[in-house]
Write a structure and sequence with these properties.
Strand 12 and strand 13 form a beta hairpin. The strands form 3 sheets. The protein has an 8-stranded mixed beta sheet, with helices on both faces. Strands 1-3-2 form a 3-stranded mixed beta sheet. Helix content is about 40%, strand content about 15%. It has one domain: Amidase signature (AS) domain (Amidase signature (AS) enzymes, Alpha-Beta Complex), CATH 3.90.1300. The radius of gyration is 21 Å and the shape is globular. It contains 16 helices and 13 strands. Helix 2 packs antiparallel against helix 3. The chain is α+β, with helices and mostly antiparallel strands. The C terminus is likely disordered.
């Protein structure tokens, strides 16, 4: 039996357990696809060819002996801000970084589930921007249109899944960095509750706004990877109660009260929802209403939530810059953000952290009237490669806020959100919508996402293979 690129995570795991295919064969095929698309898509910073083949052979021996684990022998990828033992963690930066000694907790849990880590995917410098480009690795391109970015900062993971190189991948989300590339590459992207997937060896990444999440073509696959990666290191400061995301797939959510939130949260510079994107989100709201839910326009009481985001984000950048082995090679915008972070790292940061409790209470009250929120994931489709790369720091911030004003409040709150595909622009560029809930609401969000998927069948649409891959196949 040969699995094609449409085989998802769960289907691949079942085929391996049934003996229909070997992990070695799957990993060989995966490595060949990565090699064939590096020139056109450029999804990977590190490809672990030799190590992955050895891990696949070990998985085959386990499978032959009757061992069963959720992802035993399945090839997956992780973002290059996660530690993989024996590999460097450059996090989008220039320079030769030393290999790390131990897996990060999320990677350790994937290995415990049996996954084979085939490589580490590209991300922009310290994950700051919604594009995946830089002098360290070039530009990662969108499989739906290689003239456009897949988004960021988990753009390499999104591109790898959208192109069918791996069935699923881990990313991280500090201001939408899983949900934005998922929206712009027609994927499901789960940003879980803070602490659901450990960010250890950092108990809090970027002052607690960044979490690890999953990217896949289907809700079931994104949930399966989430369950496999979930759990905590003994020293993690955030330890939410366990949930079973996979069990929620296919379970009827009942009739829900859904708030359609089209107004961008307050930002210091203008942000406007493009009419074409608005149309796709409204169509999704109409689909939810047709499924029996009550949908009405209402916006969460965000208030001045942006004032609590900036100190946490920039202080996080300052922490990373202070540890950087090659500070002279860092982007000028990174150094500017770090300077601001050092200024805001005292009393403003402490005030921002304290404000989270107030925000939880105020925005949590919104969920006495509504069960979930439906909002755009971005205000615009993906920009062209290079459009933001050479801008000044202020111009980059303006462009970033204009395109992506919707995702970041849920990072301040630490609550779950799920991007679902919402269709395409007239030019064929993907856009997405996010389902947002209160603390620990992943099961409910997964139920609604799966309900939409059953109707819309978004996973059946694929981008055309890149030219290099078509040539290799021929």
């Amino acid at each position: 039996m040969t699995l094609d690129r449409a085989a998802g995570l769960a289907e691949t795991a079942r085929a391996l357990a049934a003996g229909d295919v070997t992990s070695r064969a799957l990993v060989e095929r995966t490595l060949a696809r990565i090699e064939a698309t590096q020139g056109s898509i450029n999804a990977f910073r590190i490809v672990r060819a030799e190590a992955a083949l050895a891990e696949a052979e070990a998985a085959d021996r386990e499978l032959a002996a009757g061992a069963r684990r959720p992802l035993l022998g399945v090839p997956v990828a992780v973002k290059d801000d996660m530690d993989v033992a024996g590999e460097p963690t450059a996090f989008g930066c220039c320079g030769e970084f030393p290999p790390v000694a131990e897996d990060g907790e999320a990677v350790r849990r994937l290995r415990a589930a049996g996954a084979v880590i085939v490589g580490k995917t590209n991300t922009c410098e310290f994950g700051q921007w919604p594009f995946t480009e830089g002098p360290a690795f070039g530009a990662t391109r969108n499989p739906w249109s290689t003239a456009h970015t897949p988004g960021g900062s988990s753009g390499g993971s999104a591109a790898a899944v959208a192109a069918g190189l791996v069935p699923a991948a881990l990313g991280s989300d500090g201001a939408g960095s899983v949900r934005i590339p998922a929206a712009w590459t027609h994927l499901v992207g789960i940003k879980p509750q803070r602490g659901r997937v450990s960010t250890w060896p950092r108990g809090e990444s970027f002052q607690g706004i960044t979490v690890n999440g999953t990217l896949a073509r289907t809700v079931a696959d994104a949930a399966l990877l989430l369950d496999a990666a979930s759990g905590n290191h003994a020293q993690d400061p955030h330890r939410p109660p366990a949930v079973d995301a996979s069990a929620a797939v296919g379970r009827d959510p009942g009739r829900l009260r859904i708030a359609l939130a089209l107004k961008p949260p307050f930002t210091a510079v203008p942000a406007r929802l493009l009419p074409e994107v608005r149309t796709r989100i409204v169509e999704l709201a109409e689909q939810l209403a047709a499924l029996g839910h009550t949908v009405e326009e209402a916006d969460p009481p965000y208030g001045q939530i942006g004032l609590t985001f900036v100190p946490r984000a920039t202080a996080g950048i300052a922490e990373r810059v202070a540890e950087a082995p090659f500070p002279a090679l860092l982007d000028r915008r990174t150094l500017g953000a770090a300077r601001l972070g050092r200024l805001l790292g005292g009393a403003p940061l402490r005030a921002a952290r304290r404000a989270e409790t107030v925000l939880h209470r105020r925005i949590g009250g919104f969920f006495t009237s509504y069960d979930i929120v439906l909002a755009p994931t971005t205000a615009a489709p993906p920009p062209r490669i290079g459009a933001l790369l050479e801008l000044s720091g202020f111009a980059t911030d303006r462009a970033m806020i204009a395109a992506c004003p919707y995702a970041w409040p849920w990072n301040v709150l630490g609550w779950p959100g799920v991007n679902v595909p919402a269709g395409f622009t007239a030019d064929g560029l993907p856009v997405g919508a996010q389902l947002l809930g209160p603390a620990n609401s992943e099961p409910l969000l997964v139920q609604v996402a799966a309900q939409l998927e059953a109707e819309l069948r978004w996973h059946e649409k694929w981008p055309a293979p890149p030219v290099a891959e078509r040539s290799a196949a021929a």
